[in-house]
Specification:
Elements lengths: L3 E4 L5 H10 L6 E3 L2 E4 L11 E3 L3 E4 L3 H11 L3 E3 L5 H9 L21 E7 L2 E5 L25 H11 L8 E5 L5 H8 L3 E6 L5 H4 L4 E5 L10 E6 L5 H12 L4 E9 L6 H8 L4 E4 L7 E7 L3
Parallel strand pairs: 6-7, 9-10, 9-12, 10-11, 12-13
Antiparallel strand pairs: 1-3, 1-4, 2-3, 5-8, 7-8, 13-15, 14-15
The structure holds S-adenosylmethionine.
Length: 301
């Protein structure tokens, strides 16, 4: 009996396994990057997607598999690990699901989406519900190959898409660890005012954008002030980052926080749990995150 399935990001299977172990969630086996658990689903920061109602279905033929899926609901995304030819034949009998790249800041897809895979040629796992609105948790965008100085802006775009909110004209933002300036570029492009802070210089083209101010210095000595958004992609250990975030979410600080928690070598699961316990906060592994998590918080949530 499979009670839930957790999809790990590439190369982060062990990190997800450890998170689940600490949460008391069993994993009986893996199907590719999908951890198959006998237990009920729990919230997972490291999973790209959680299949929350998986059912094992014996299938006699390609047609019976497609019929079973269509009998449950319309939209299905396939996660293929093996039996690829058979999976293609089944998918061809389903209504097409277009995993179109988003044009930021358009919202995440709202259509209900389930996920399925073939565990064996005659055994399908299908979950009508899952936590991510994206096919296999892959939030893809029409990228800008000219404007931003690095690809890091995709993390900010994805975080904003996941929380359903983004900086707007007239709002004020601080961007800590801003250089070379991908996040600052993304925020300025949305029409908000942004103060970028880094020990290293900001790319000149970004520094010259309307609404951008740059202060060279340490992110950790910046005193909190009332701003609409605090962004941080600063390279730091989780503990000092947590202290910094606590200062900014105290009264008189930021209304919203989007912050990357980076791990060098070992994953600090204790620090992760402390971030996860902050009221109003949300911890997620973005499709564009590497060995890092994104913490999002909103005052009053
Ligand atoms: C991953 S990069 C940020 C990339 C940026 N978000 C972008 O989109 O281009 C991390 C940055 O943190 C900065 N940094 C590291 N320690 C810092 C500190 N104590 N104070 C300020 N900046 C720091 C580095 O100089 C580096 O530019």
């Amino acid at each position: 009996m499979i009670g839930a399935a957790y999809l790990a990001a590439e190369g982060l299977e062990e990190v997800l396994a450890e998170e689940l172990r600490r949460a008391g969630v069993g994993v009986d086996s893996w199907h590719g990057r999908l951890a198959l658990s006998p237990d009920l689903p729990v919230a997972s920061a490291w999973a790209l997607d959680v299949w929350t109602a998986p059912r094992e279905v014996e299938i006699a033929s390609v047609k019976s598999a497609a019929d079973a899926l269509r009998g449950m609901q319309r939209n299905w995304a396939a996660y293929g690990v093996a039996h690829h030819r058979r999976m293609v034949l089944i998918a061809e009998r389903l209504p097409p699901v277009k995993a179109r790249a988003l044009v930021f800041p358009e919202p995440a897809p709202a259509a209900h989406l389930g996920a399925w895979t073939l565990l064996a040629p005659d055994r399908m796992l299908a979950s009508p519900t899952k936590t991510s609105p994206f096919v296999n948790g892959e939030c893809r965008f029409e990228e800008d190959h000219i404007g931003p100085p690095s690809r890091a802006y995709l993390k900010l775009w994805e975080a904003c898409t996941r929380i359903g909110d983004h900086p707007r004209p007239g709002q004020t933002c601080i961007d800590l660890g801003a250089s070379p300036g991908g996040w600052t570029w993304a925020v300025a492009k949305l029409g908000a005012a942004v103060t970028a802070i880094d020990r290293a210089p900001l790319q000149a083209r970004v520094a010259a954008m309307p609404g951008v101010a740059f202060r060279q210095g340490s992110a950790f000595t910046v005193l909190p002030e009332p701003v609409d958004w605090l962004f941080s992609d600063v390279i730091a250990y989780p503990a000092p980052l947590l202290e910094m975030v606590r200062r900014w979410i105290a009264p008189g600080g930021a209304d919203r926080v989007v912050c990357t928690i980076k791990f060098q070598g070992e994953t600090d699961h204790e620090a992760t749990a402390t971030f996860a316990a902050i009221p109003g906060g949300r911890l997620m592994h973005l499709f564009h995150n590497k060995h890092e998590l994104t913490f999002a918080w909103r005052r009053g949530d």
